[in-house]
């Protein structure tokens, strides 16, 4: 079982203080920055495992990292099943220890037609998950009792 997590992230706000009035304590946000933990390694170590348009690995079976990508596809299957077909995480990228920039994929009923999770939330991906996801050997692990979706087992 891979030991992987998402990078730690936070927001940093830069404020401008109005010094035109001596007793003024009024400040306003000047800039906002998203800070993320650095993923160490070479550029070639950074891999896009699963795109947000497809719930299956982008890698070919003979490529390094394919089995890890299968595991990530399995995690999507678990998320989809445990949320009653409403949500899963996609756009897995990074390395085999740290992932970054995920996309939350939601069924249209979750956001009530509002853009809650940005342009990368492709609601069609959730609606078509059961026909597009191809189960793999992880999906067959006992205890999860996952319904088999898609075509042949990868």
TrEMBL record:
The keyword Transferase applies. The lineage of its organism: Eukaryota, Fungi, Dikarya, Basidiomycota, Agaricomycotina. GO terms for molecular function: ATP binding; protein serine/threonine kinase activity. The keyword Cytoplasm does not apply. Residues 1-149 form the Alpha-type protein kinase domain. Keywords: Kinase, Serine/threonine-protein kinase, Transferase. It holds the Pfam family Alpha_kinase. It comes from the Eukaryota. InterPro entries: a-kinase_dom, Kinase-like_dom_sf. This is Alpha-type protein kinase domain-containing protein.
């Amino acid at each position: 079982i891979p030991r992987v997590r998402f990078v730690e992230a936070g927001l940093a706000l830069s404020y401008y203080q109005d010094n035109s009035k001596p007793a003024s304590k009024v400040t306003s946000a000047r800039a906002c920055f998203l800070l993320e933990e650095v993923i160490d390694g070479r550029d070639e170590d950074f891999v896009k495992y699963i795109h947000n348009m497809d719930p299956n690995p982008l890698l070919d079976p003979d490529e390094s990292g394919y089995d890890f990508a299968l595991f990530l596809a399995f995690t999507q299957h678990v998320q989809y099943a445990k949320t009653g077909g409403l949500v899963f995480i996609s756009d897995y990228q990074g390395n085999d220890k740290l992932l970054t920039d995920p996309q939350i994929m939601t069924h249209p009923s979750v956001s009530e037609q509002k853009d809650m999770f940005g342009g990368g939330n492709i609601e069609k991906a959730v609606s078509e998950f059961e026909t597009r996801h191809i189960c793999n050997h992880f999906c067959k692990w006992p205890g999860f009792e996952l319904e088999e979706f898609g075509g042949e087992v990868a």
